[in-house]
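pasting for ref
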Amino acid sequence: MMVTDRYPVGSPADQLRCRIREQTMYRIIDRYLLREIATPSIMVLFVLTFVLLMGKILQLMDLMVNKGVSLFNVALLILSLLPSFLVFTIPISLLIAILIGLGRLSGDNETIILRTSGVSLYRLSFPVAVASVIAFFLTAITSLFLVPQGNQATKNILFNIAKQKASIGIKEKVFNDDFNGILLYAENIPIHGNFMEGVIVSDNRITSDPSTIIAKRAYLISDPRSMVVTLRLENGSTHTVDMNHRSYRKMDFTSYDINLDIESTLARERKAKDKQSREMTVKELMDNLSRPGLGREASTTLAIELNKKITIPFSCFVFGILGIPIGIRAHRAVKSRGFTLGLLIVLLYYVFQLCGDALVETGRISVLAGTWAANAIFGILGLGLYFLTAKERSYRDLFSGGLRWLKKIFRIFREGRP
């Protein structure tokens, strides 16, 4: 029986059986299409998230292998970094999965069979809509709640590691001024990082004329509870110049300890970086925006971040509506083509988004126009392609219609009348 025979001639029992068979068939089709989308979506999500994590994982492995950071802290850092990647990879994996799934069905002519059996494109879009809604809620939860908490947790974990391992941030052949009143230089730091060689210290905490200390070797000894870090120098000398009395003093030593003020340094860093915009929830962003005396640059940054927390989840709907016509039109498409086409669309989307953010920051357009421009442009394009595909018309009709409207608009501006 054709699906289009919704009301066949016969008894009410026959009509009921036909409706039950029709609903059963639709449920089978929906599960089939959802499975075709879900499988590549999970695979692409895992691959993209892993690729984005690779750059951070290399740095984290260096902390664990060479700096002595525990595996537990490294695992916590990876978990806290995941939300900031998932908020982008979930919409991207949805789009690529739709292109791969529908492209496979179109390449095997299964979509043609379904449509000739009376299943319209609008009905075929139901499983894609379900997948888009699921991706939307996952992205919204990640963007609104998990990303701020993850960014804050990352900062706290790094703060605790810095207290326990004071030598992590020190690099060889680089002047380090992280400690209050101390300028530290190390010529060589072994891979394990337990000590430093060829150390030069400039200490200006006591007098305006800094004392220069040179030592062959130095150790950093930290006490996380008391927030005291001691720099223990061995086999060196101190050099002090008094400009007022025009005197010079040198003192050789075998062991020399300097107490470093890490607490005030970390407190200053924490205060300077306290709750950046990407670490704030929606409520905190709105509270800060309503704060009096807020500068234009700060308010623009907060407003962009607030809108991005909403626009990024809505990109799931944009990618969903855009992926349906492109996936179905891709006859004889292979999976690699769907993956490549999806990445190209995502690249263009985020280029438009970055351009919109840049125009907002320069004050050329409003925050709403800049942050929502990418969704609006790709959403309108997706709707146009979707309805053309539903009516089985060529893409040329969309471009020719758009050109006609552009010509009409230009004529109105030029002549001042329709």
